[in-house]
């Protein structure tokens, strides 16, 4: 009832090319191209897996291939994760800041006029939803933060069952206390880290955000998106929430699922249609 995990290991068509955004082994993004040469929006896919090393970008392959088939240029990003050297705090955030700042230009250099980087959207599932929303809010960080941007990123966000409030996720123990491992402590022990790492603490971001969440999600409860949307709207943000009945966690990234058309339409709503 909470969706098959089959998509996590299902093979996908290989990328057309891979670009590098930094010096580490995981500083890469797989690029898949649509079957047309006209300029198409850029979708940066940030995968989930509770920030853990055991989950890499391979499990986002079916999702990414389907997005390319729908007419988008897709860059599926990798980043250092918990359990890897340099992963967790602060390396995971270093990587996501770097990739969201640089991938549009890198992809444009690689594929030329086939991509329209002015229509860029960050699509993140689960922990990837957290990272996408956080990246779009970095201009809200204190000026002294290593990840602060002077200007907004300028990309829209589609959060698919995103972990959008790290303090709540830590209280709930999501992912077997994954947030505690990510930030090196609880919200009581490391309040300064939660203040700069949680999208909910950085509202309003001003970014166009669309949240999709299954009501039957057992990994990340739908109340996470509900409360984030309510708080953002109260502060003036344009946040839409689409709740899917009969839907769990993994269907949102599975092109074979009944939930996939809503996920795809959400990307279109933020970027505009590809053609």
What does this entry look like structurally?
The protein has 275 residues and is of the alpha/beta class. It has a single domain (5-271), classed as Alpha/Beta hydrolase fold, catalytic domain (Rossmann fold). The protein is 32% helix and 18% strand. The chain is built from eight helices and eight strands. The chain has an eight-stranded mixed β-sheet, sandwiched between helices. β5 (115-125), α3 (127-135) and β6 form a beta-alpha-beta unit. α4 crosses α5. It starts with 16 loop residues before the first strand and ends with a helix. The model has no long low-confidence stretch (mean pLDDT 96).
CATH architecture: 3-Layer(aba) Sandwich
Task: Write out the strand line-up for the largest beta sheet, numbering strands in chain order.
Answer: 1-2-4-3-5-6-7-8
Q: Helix fraction? A: 25-40%
Instruction: Tally the structural domains.
Output: 1
Q: Can you tell me the CATH superfamily? A: Alpha/Beta hydrolase fold, catalytic domain
Q: Termini, distance in Å?
A: 36 Å
Write the layout of secondary structure elements.
Layout: E1 17-20, E2 28-32, E3 40-46, H1 61-69, E4 73-77, H2 91-111, E5 115-125, H3 127-135, E6 156-160, H4 166-172, H5 174-183, H6 191-197, E7 209-214, H7 223-234, E8 239-244, H8 260-271
Parallel strand pairs: 3-4, 3-5, 5-6, 6-7, 7-8
Antiparallel strand pairs: 1-2, 2-4
Helix pairs in contact: 4-5
